């Protein structure tokens, strides 16, 4: 929770803008995700990313998801979001793939 508060405070300053996920495609967060979906959605949005509520529109799926995924979509663990934010850089998705 502290990470969200820090990002909110920084984004409220005005001149500061976190755009870590700004160039990423739409991201879908699984309802089964841990940390909870709403927390991850807020983190992504605070970092300039776009979240969608339907998987068929997304190119990235975060968290465990048992349903059918669109061909070509990337299925990644929640750790990818958290590690990218912690390291202030996009991490290689290879270490976070879920099959």
Automatic annotation (TrEMBL):
Q: Which InterPro entries match?
A: BRCT_dom, BRCT_dom_sf, Microcephalin-like
Query: Which Pfam families does this entry report, sorted A to Z?
Result: BRCT_2
Q: Which GO terms describe its biological process?
A: mitotic cell cycle
List the Gene3D superfamilies: BRCT domain
Describe the location of the BRCT domain by residue ranges. 16-98
* UniProt protein name: BRCT domain-containing protein
Q: What is the lineage of its organism?
A: Eukaryota, Metazoa, Chordata, Craniata, Vertebrata
């Amino acid at each position: 929770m502290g990470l969200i508060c820090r990002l909110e405070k920084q984004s409220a300053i005005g001149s500061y803008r976190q755009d870590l996920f700004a160039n990423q495609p739409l991201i879908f967060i699984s309802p089964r995700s841990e940390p909870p979906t709403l927390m991850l959605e807020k983190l992504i949005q605070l970092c300039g990313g776009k979240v969608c509520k339907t998987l068929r529109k997304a190119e990235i799926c975060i968290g465990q998801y048992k349903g059918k995924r669109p061909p070509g979509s990337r299925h990644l663990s929640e750790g990818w979001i958290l590690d990218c934010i912690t390291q202030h850089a996009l991490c290689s998705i290879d270490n976070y793939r879920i099959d």
